[in-house]
Amino acid sequence: MGTGIASILLHNLPYNAIWLYWLSVIIFCLNVVLFISFFAISVVRYTMFPGIFTAMIQHPAQSLFMGTFPMGLATIINMIVFVCVPSWGQGAVILAWSLWWIDVAVALASCFYLPFIIIYVHKSDLSTMTAAWLLPIVATIVAAASGGIVAEVLPNPQHALWTIITSYVLWGTGFPMAMIVLTIYFHRLTVHHLPPREVIVSVFLPLGPLGQGSFALMQLGKVALRVFPPTNAFQMEDMGKIFYAVGHLASLIIWGFGLVWFFFALASVSRSKFPFNMGWWGFTFPIGVYAVATCTLAEHLPSAFFRNLGTIFSVAVVLLWAGIATETARRAYTGQIFFAPCVQGYERDVAAKMVEKRQGSVTAENPGSA
Fold it and tell me: Membrane-spanning residues where (predicted)?
């Protein structure tokens, strides 16, 4: 997600240059390699040790990160539209649309199932809650935003209409739920104060649904303005204009709400000394999608203020990505960065079963010992 948003920001930077474009392409290719590699590793891992997947799903914290899979795929889909479609034409459009439907299915599964696991399986305590609860929910908002980008290049207006309507439904499944979680999270902060320093970076995660939710409404409204009239959607001549106007009004309000959480996040991390861990990647994507919303506002208003602010946000995210990626690579080489909490429980279960099996074997061989 962090690598993908860095490539998108460089590609869409308000003040751009040809070398920035090629840099975005290089990071995009790196993102594809990382995604395929990690996906293949995960498949091998869960195939060889099937019990780890169950342990991961039942873990109250690690299971939430399943939502990052469709969000990471969405960044690749977006860059396929930005980079590959102009060069490869219709084949790239079909690829992007096909991948988007896969992304939709996985995002819906994440948004529906994982929050239910929190309700049904986990014994949650308000004091231990973090903004990571947003991760499985935000997946559908990200898919909705990607749907708006894909719909813009679909040559068939009817296909574009299906994509737009699906994207609005996806936005409706994710954004209101995200607001509910933000309410609970704000209550948690006021009652139990800041999260532990190990997970303090999670205070930036609320920028994810707000930034992507704002961008999604602008992008979908922009495409609806073009697609609704020829398809006679909703059987009203000006319905596209209504969606466009309401979407931009709502997106501006949501962007303003994001400023509040941005301030909370900056104030929180400024009062904490926290060690480097994989949680630092929580800096990149939330701020990145908020930067995307800012740059999109600059394009549609138009506004030099939002253009300059979007550029500052974008450059900051790319620099953060470069620093965090460098430190992650260094610690990955030494093995210091790898830690899977669910594996500890899995290993304990396996050890307990082996002990029970040995005891059963001893009892069977020596019935009198019982």
Answer: 19-44, 64-88, 100-121, 133-154, 160-187, 199-222, 242-266, 278-299, 305-324
- Contacts of residue 148, Cβ cutoff 8 Å, sequence gap at least 6: 164, 167, 216, 219, 220, 222, 223
- Give the pTM: 0.90
Residue-range domain boundaries for the chain:
2-330
Q: Give the tens place of pLDDT for each residue, 5-43.
A: 999 999 999 888 899 999 999 999 999 999 999 999 999
Q: What distance in Å separates the CA atoms of residue 290 and residue 254, rounded to the nearest whole number?
A: 10
2-330: CATH superfamily: Voltage-dependent anion channel (1.50.10.150)
Q: What is the pLDDT of residues 105-148, one digit of tens each?
A: 999 999 999 888 888 887 778 888 888 899 999 999 999 999 99
